[in-house]
Amino acid sequence: MYRIKHFYLLVVCFLAWTGASMPVYSQSEMKDFLNDVVDSIATIAQSPDQAVDSAQLKIEQTQLTDGALTGKNMEKLKHFLLFVLVLIVQYLLILLTNFGFQKLKLWVDSKNDRYLKPVYIKKYEFLSIAKEKQVVFFLLNILRYLVIIVQLIISIPILFSIFPQTEYLAIQIFSYILMPVKKIAWSIIHYIPKLFVILVIWLVIRYVVKGLGYLANEIEKGRLKITGFYPDWARPTFTLIRFLLYVFMLVLIYPYLPNSDSKIFQGISVFLGIIVSFGSSAAIGNLVSGMIITYMRPFQIGDRIKINDIIGNVMERTPIVTRIQTLKNEIVTIPNSTIINSQSTNLSRSAKTKGLIIYFSITCDYGVDWRTIHQLLIDAAQATEGVLSDPHPFVLETAFDDSIVSYEINAYINDADQLMQITSALRENIQDKFKEAGISLSSAQYVNLVSNQK
Q1: How far, in Å, are 44, 45, 260 from residue 49 at the CA level?
Q2: Dihedrals φ, ψ of 225, to 5°?
Q3: 296 has a pLDDT exceeding 60
Q4: Cα–Cα distance measured from residue 206 to residue 319, given in angstroms and rounded to the nearest whole number
Q5: HSE value, Cβ hemisphere, 13 Å, CA-based, for 110
Q6: 344-346 and 304-307 as β-strands: parallel, antiparallel, unpaired?
Q7: Are strands 331-335 and 356-365 parallel, antiparallel or unpaired?
Q8: What is the pLDDT of residues 400-451, one digit of tens each?
Q9: Which of 204, 235, 323, 409: disulfide with 316, CB 3.0–4.6 Å?
Q10: How far, CA to CA in Å, does 361 sit from each of 295, 393, 394, 395, 441?
């Protein structure tokens, strides 16, 4: 409110300066007028009733030569009183507006439990009653300021129209306000047909996407079967088609956007396109790799895989990255482009279909009979829980060194998730069998993995 009073004071000073440069009033007359108006504004800020009494006192104190008011002084007094009257009315309107909105806030605060309800998105409370009340109060404050601005837009030209010297400014101010409003209104009216076309395009694409979403859901749940199309393809395929449809919709809508033929609009569109292209080249590469992985189906969620030196279970597969939980419970994030460019092994699929071979090398002296070594290794493998009896474990002699012979035990397993436990148990059984036979092991190498290629 304090700023509004000062704003009116600036308006008065401008009027006084404009009037001082006009031939109708003398310089001394305009100075007296300015002093009277400033005093009146100060009085209005304190009490509108006191301002009226002060204006009447000014009339009674006005003394003219020959004891009568001339027509010129009477006209000046009339302008002054009208000016003060407009200020008083505007001041009262602002007070009334603030009072009304304050009452409205109190009413909303008292009725919030009745009319306001929490807004939930699934189980998440998006807006509580307290937050909704804050939003309502914020919107009411904006509306209050808009009402005051509209009042000022009306009252300021009226103030300018009171004095002959500034009457032309009132017309200009009204034109400055009405012309943009008129232009915007006509633009909206002329844009309605194009808006209707955009609405039709949006509705068509929206219901096409809904129909495809229903089909994708049916395929994903296995109720609709298409030969050669796997259920896990349904969701990513729907996501891809939906994206392409939305891009197609934007292409159709673009010519109907306001100022779409503007050079500036087209330049900004090209600039944004270049920024997106350069900034997302790596992301786009990973996205394309993610689509390739989806349709190649090298692994599924939960499979134990080996990528380079990383062995673990697939926890999450997104269009950009794949997350793997290693044997030590570490979550490793691998970009999809890295997976495409690397050698990957699906241990779970191999174990479930043909059986996964674990093989372990040991060395013994030449003095120990090779048949005994073979039997001890096979007995150790058969005694290991998780090793399959069919196919049967087998031993290979892999190298003859100067003083030792290398033997390799090969055993089949069908549970890749128990790989660590089975290999550990196999080591324990080999040590036990050789100790029982009184044979010492020269050295042992790491356990390796291979898919059964038979």
Answers
A1: 8, 11, 57
A2: -115, 130
A3: yes
A4: 23
A5: 6
A6: antiparallel
A7: unpaired
A8: 888 888 999 999 998 888 888 898 899 899 999 999 988 887 655 544 445 5
A9: 323
A10: 38, 14, 12, 9, 11
**Distance (Å) of CA 66 to CA 69, 284, 361:** 9, 94, 133
**Per-residue buried b or exposed e for 179-195, using 16+ beta carbons within 10 Å of the residue's own CB:** eeeeeeeeeeeeeeeee
HEC secondary structure over the chain? CHHHHHHHHHHHHHHHHHHHCCCCCCHHHHHHHHHHHHHHHHHHHHCHHHHHHHHHHHHHHCCCHHHCCCHHHHHHHHHHHHHHHHHHHHHHHHHHHHHHHHHHHHHHHHCHHHHCCCEEECCEEEECHHHHHHHHHHHHHHHHHHHHHHHHHHHHHHHHHHCHHHHHHHHHHHHHHHHHHHHHHHHHHHHHHHHHHHHHHHHHHHHHHHHHHHHHHHHHCCCCCECCECHHHHHHHHHHHHHHHHHHHHHHHHHHCCCCCCHHHHHHHHHHHHHHHHHCHHHHHHHHHHHHHHHHCCCCCCCEEEECCEEEEEEEECCCEEEEEECCCCEEEEEHHHHHCCCEEEHHHHHHHCCEEEEEEEEEECCCCHHHHHHHHHHHHHCCCCECCCCCCEEEEEEECCCEEEEEEEEEECCHHHHHHHHHHHHHHHHHHHHHHCCCCCEECCCEEEECCC
357 and 411 in contact (C-beta within 8 Å)? yes
Phi, psi dihedrals of residue 69, rounded to the nearest 5°: -80, 130
| CB of 303 closer than 8 Å to CB of 324 | no
Q: Which two tokens stand for residue 362?
A: 């040991």
Torsion over CA: 191, 197, 201, 204 (sign): positive
Burial class of 245 by CB neighbour count within 10 A (0 to 12, 13 to 18, 19+): middle
Rounded distance, CA 300 to CA 314, Å? 7
Contact 399, 362 (CB under 8 A): no
- Taking the C-alpha atoms of residue 109 and residue 137, their distance in angstroms, rounded to an integer, is 9
As given in the structure block, the two tokens for residue 179 are: 């012309």
222: number of CA atoms within 13 Å, CB side? 0
Please give the Cα distance from 61 to 35 (Å, whole number). 15
Cα–Cα dist 310/323, whole Å: 11
CA distance 350 to 304: 10
The 10s digit of each residue's pLDDT in 360-406 is 888 888 888 899 999 999 999 999 998 998 889 999 998 888 888 89
